[in-house]
Amino acid sequence: MEAQEQENMINLLNEQLQKDLADADSSFEMKMIQGEYDKKLQKLNEGQNIFEDNSPDDSHYECIGCGA
Q1: Which of 41, 42, 44, 54 is surrounded by the most beta carbons within 10 Å?
Q2: DSSP 2-16
Q3: What is the pLDDT of residue 51?
């Protein structure tokens, strides 16, 4: 992953964090959002693309009853 691409993803992640924190109803929800952000930021810093869909198209597994 290129540095510019990583920086763009971090900016998108920061924007989403601010939006989600503003929409949070409780301090517990804010802590959960912050924890998820921290984990995603760690993955980005390791060079992983967190916005990439890694699910295989030929998977035999599906979510039953989840609306998918």
Answers
A1: 44
A2: -HHHHHHHHHHHHHH
A3: 74
